[in-house]
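Task: complex structure prediction.
Instruction: return structure tokens for all chains below.
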Amino acid sequence: MIALYNNKRWKLSSYVIALVLILPMLVMLVGSVSASTKLFSHLWQTVLPSYLANTLLLAFWVVLLALFFGVLSASIITQTNIVFKQYLRWLLLLPLSMPAYLVAYLYTDLFDYAGPVQRILRSWFDWQTPNDYWFFDIRTLPGAALMLALVLFPYVYMLTRGALEHQDQNLFRASRLLGLTAKQSFFSVALPLARPAIAVSASLVLMETLADFATVQYFSVNTLTTAIYDTWLGYGDLAAANTLASILVLIILFVVLAEQRSRSGVTHQSARPSLKRELIQLSVGQQLLASLFCWSLVVSGFLLPIVLLIIMAVQYSDITQLSALILTGMNSLKISFFAATTAVFIALLLGLYQRLHTDKYRKIPLQVSGFGYAVPGTVLAMAMLSTLGPLDHWLNRAGELLGFSAPGLILSGSLFAIVFALVVRFSAIANGTITSGITQIPQSLDYAPASLGVNLLGSITKVHLPILTPTILMAWLLVFVEAMKELPAVLLLRPFNFETLSSQIYQLISNEMLEQGALGAILIVLFGLLPIVLLNKNKERV
Amino acid sequence: MSALLSIEQLSITLKERNIISMLNLSLNEGDILGLVGASGCGKTTLLNVIAGFIKPNGGRVFIDDHLISDGEHCLSAEQRQVGMIFQDYALFPHLTVKENIAFGLSKLSKAEQLEQVDRLLSLLKLSDYRDSYIQQLSGGQQQRVAIARALAPEPKLLLLDEPFSNIDARLRNELMLEIRQLLKRFNTTAIFVTHNKDEVFTFADKMAVMVQGRLLQIGAPSIICQQPNSYQVADFLQLGSWLPCQVKHKSAQSLLGKVTLVTHDLKQEDLLYLLVKPSHLRLKVSIDENSYPNAEVEYISVTEQGYHYYVSSINDPTKSELLSFYKLSVYSDIELSLKQKVTLSIRPHEYLFFSRPD
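Output:
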């Protein structure tokens, strides 16, 4: 690949932007290293082992359950003749739009002692007290794991389904000709070949679990994310919170590296996936079991929660809720708009830099800028506070020295911090989408404008940007939706009296009053559905 | 006539590999040069250097006596007035035919742009498609749009990178003749890259053969084919088969007999290779006192010119193994079978001997 342009200002701005995006993380890590070892040993002697154990145990159970749900459902959909396959194919993706904390609240409401299920059971069997019967307690670590797995398994489903569908069908034909049945071929050929995709999806689930804050907080399961939140907001100890956040970053870094190592050089995509696949024919009993399994996932992960939310909305919504919803909705729209626009602008600048600049290391700014995606919102918020807080103090002191009035917390206490955090966290989404759009453009189109006497700016504005318009819109929308849903970073960084849809719903959940925010919750789910519909549509087209 | 393009001592190294070394080339105004060579020999790299997409490591490039590249300073691609037609045409999918052609005309007024676009649309028989998008056109029509777009800014030099490789054979010849006429009409100097020598005969005035980053021969295509200057040139152009010969006493001895050398500057005992075209060989089947079998049939195919055979020398322990020949191409009306023994002899002709590079 030959790059075309050698613009120094472009080079400088690309590296500066990448540095700015990663700077808060560096400041936080340096801060935690320089924190006193006394503090760390205190943490280690008191709460850290149990937080760590809970975090790892939760991650283990969520990954295990998500793999079970995701791999089995993907296998059933791609390899068998299950009925209503055409609907289940996309219905199984829908739980991804449901925030885990919403599902957690709704199921707690449903299955708790005071909930309708236990009430009905008590009235049927004439039980008087909790001692008269046993019923599972959902507000536990396994309960939290189940809630998270119910909404995260679609990652595993989506990637495994894709891997299974793109395998070379001639491999199975060869396997059948060598004497294996369709079922045996699946276990000895298809599933081992899908291993890299399954590993990637498992690492995604793992990262999402490590990043989760609201579900575990609601279930009172103390993990590293809740510890960071409590240490900062409860005790105001930034150094301790930084140390905990750094430990979490190290665990995530380990996951990312392990995942990359496990699949290095392994690809099993085929040029002949479209050959007709021979499906495993299920008996009536098997059909029933398979359908029950898949539909249970759809119902428990999406349909039941959304129906419960709709019922709540119908029963409890009133005009005051609507006006509150409009206010918080506007706040969400505002920060998501700024975050999406900034992230897409940066992705374009760095993506085109990677494509068109002569710099030998032109890939670095783009790679560095996407690092934030692996970082949980809670950690990112700590990084922002560690960086922007001292900057604010410095600005205030500088202002006072120059005889101006102190400007206050203009960086750490304003929307700037939230938008900055959202841009860092979701730049990778914009980068990935824009880069994939850029790679679709034939390289000869980079050269053609120059051969017609058109310069770099003309080439970008007249050729690249118009061709990339659908990709830009897609990237913008994906970041916008993720920013709308983001909770922990917003909770920790929002200015006083500033609520977004997600933070308001979280407050209502914490106060056991979700009914008051059911409409907003539905709105978040609907926004969450948008990228799923779009991505699924794109995949089907491919 | 002064040279429009002049390249002196050009060298290019990419990823620590010498792609082009010490290349010289000169091209007069209005000339169309067909640049041929095997894949990876550096043809497209040379075009990219001339266009300004690759910075050379050394050497100088002049266009119209203006220095555009000297290894340190490089005029940017958009300032060179060099047009290019890409292998995949590189047409802008978001623009119409008319907008594609007008793309490089932003320096002209709207009226002048319109006039130039209309002229090219009519010359290239594209007037009916002026508002169509590229995806709505056939391969041949897209090719026409690409040439119209490249010619619109009236470049001093036009580069064509395998522009006919995506067109089916029947249309290809027609289109090549049409575009050649157009280039001649505009008196446009052009370099045309291909690995098909037949395309050069149809399209170009001159042919240049490139092997491993060096230009081995430049000249009229018919002259090069009659008088290749090296083993590599003749071999790449597939001008015939190779018969090993040993020089002895002003003659060259081969397994097909002795031929007298005209030139006497060859070293004794040198192993040389005689270029033999099918028409240079005589094939006999009947064996008599004067002829003995010296070859056997290795491969048979049927062509319009009769049977086509590849014959190789018979393994004979009394003869030098150095002189064994392999797969000489010969045509005949006689029907032979595989491994059948035959007698081959060389018809007198102007002999071309080459030594084979290591």
